[in-house]
């Protein structure tokens, strides 16, 4: 049976598709090209620094390799801020322990006390047998600081002080954080065991199996969820990251394009004081939107406008409730540590933007 759609609806849809395509050509592509140029510049400097680190300490082997212009482990936080994950070799004597006491985090523990000396990272293992994320990061930070002084780019790269993170400032305008990490393939954390929700038909079981086999990463970085808890565990804990899993889920339909438009709108209009609306918040809400609209036809070209409006309305709701749950770890709040004032201000800005998008058929020309 053919659906009877009024001609004016077709006209509105094709106008919206035209607007979206134009926005992608004019704004999204410009952003992508600019960021791509910046990435090449950043990676050139970081590769040089890491080469120097490797000479001093061969355990920190750089995994920052260029695959036809794509760098594994590189995340764009904003057009001037990046994170680079360096994957370390774990040497199988450690067990992954995730008992839910540390939201968004887990620990790596010696499988057997007698195997301590077999670990590649023996001096970073605490008396109780945990591989300390903070101790590894502290050593890495010292090595990077020495490498920065020696590398070919020493005139334009500086270490950022007053943080336990390894952060560099390049040519005064770019910031890059280098994060040591372990890949956990073939494992799935207990704290994410509820996923996928049984009553929701997305994603397809084959993709779920693929995502769970691919696993997740454990990063050595400050965990906002633990700040103020001051537990001894805090320094030993590793932050869980599902970046690869999230990217896999966003394949198919126009989901990736949707994300690119959201990131562009965020950079142009929602780069606000206190940074409450990160690109990661946008990506998270896009994943929730995929659950609300599980059918592939809801992610075709003509639906993108509706999906983006849906995500903005959800964002306003999260900002007003002051809570945005992580997609895989809903006990973890992505707004934790953000001030109520920053969230309130962001909610007004997002509402202003959403009103334009809902009321003006030519909204993207203004944005």
Automatic annotation (TrEMBL):
Tell me which residues make up the Mab-21-like nucleotidyltransferase domain. Answer: 70-252
Question: InterPro entries, alphabetically?
Answer: Mab-21-like_nuc_Trfase, Mab-21_HhH/H2TH-like, MAB21L/cGLR
Question: What domain of life does the native source organism fall in?
Answer: Eukaryota
Which segments constitute the Mab-21-like HhH/H2TH-like domain? 255-352
In terms of Pfam families, this protein maps to: Mab-21, Mab-21_C
Tell me the PANTHER family matching this sequence. CELL FATE DETERMINING PROTEIN MAB21-RELATED, PROTEIN MAB-21-RELATED
Family assignment?
Answer: Belongs to the mab-21 family.
Q: What is this protein called?
A: Protein mab-21
């Amino acid at each position: 049976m053919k659906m009877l759609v009024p001609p004016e609806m077709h006209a509105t849809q094709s106008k919206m598709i035209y607007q979206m395509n134009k926005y992608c050509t004019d704004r999204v592509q410009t952003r992508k090209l600019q960021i791509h140029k910046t990435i090449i510049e950043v990676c050139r400097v970081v590769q040089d620094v890491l080469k120097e680190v490797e000479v001093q300490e061969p355990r920190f082997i750089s995994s920052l390799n260029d695959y036809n212009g794509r760098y594994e482990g590189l995340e764009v936080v904003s057009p001037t801020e990046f994170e680079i994950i360096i994957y370390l070799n774990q040497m199988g004597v450690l067990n992954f322990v995730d008992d839910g006491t540390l939201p968004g985090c887990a620990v790596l523990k010696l499988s057997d006390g007698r195997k301590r000396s077999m670990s590649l990272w023996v001096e970073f293992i605490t008396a109780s047998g945990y591989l300390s994320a903070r101790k590894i990061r502290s050593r890495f930070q010292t090595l990077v600081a020495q490498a920065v002084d020696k590398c070919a780019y020493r005139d334009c790269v500086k270490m950022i002080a007053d943080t336990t993170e390894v952060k560099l400032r390049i040519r005064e305008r770019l910031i890059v954080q280098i994060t040591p990490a372990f890949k956990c393939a073939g494992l799935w954390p207990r704290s994410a065991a509820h996923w996928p929700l049984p009553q929701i038909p997305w994603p397809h079981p084959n993709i779920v199996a693929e995502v769970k086999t691919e696993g997740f990463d454990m990063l050595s970085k400050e965990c906002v969820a633990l700040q103020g808890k001051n537990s001894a565990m805090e320094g030993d804990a590793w932050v869980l990251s599902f970046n690869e899993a999230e990217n896999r889920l966003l394949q198919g339909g126009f989901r990736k394009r949707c994300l690119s438009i959201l990131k562009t709108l965020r950079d142009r209009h929602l780069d606000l004081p206190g940074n409450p609306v990160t690109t990661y918040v946008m990506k998270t809400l896009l994943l929730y939107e995929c659950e609300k609209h599980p059918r592939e036809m809801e992610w075709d070209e003509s639906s993108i406008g509706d999906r983006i409006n849906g995500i903005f309305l959800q964002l306003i709701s999260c900002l007003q409730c002051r809570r945005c749950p992580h997609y895989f770890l809903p006990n973890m709040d992505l707004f934790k540590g953000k001030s109520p004032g920053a969230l309130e201000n962001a909610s007004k800005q997002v509402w202003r933007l959403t009103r334009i998008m809902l009321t003006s058929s030519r909204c993207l020309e203004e944005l």
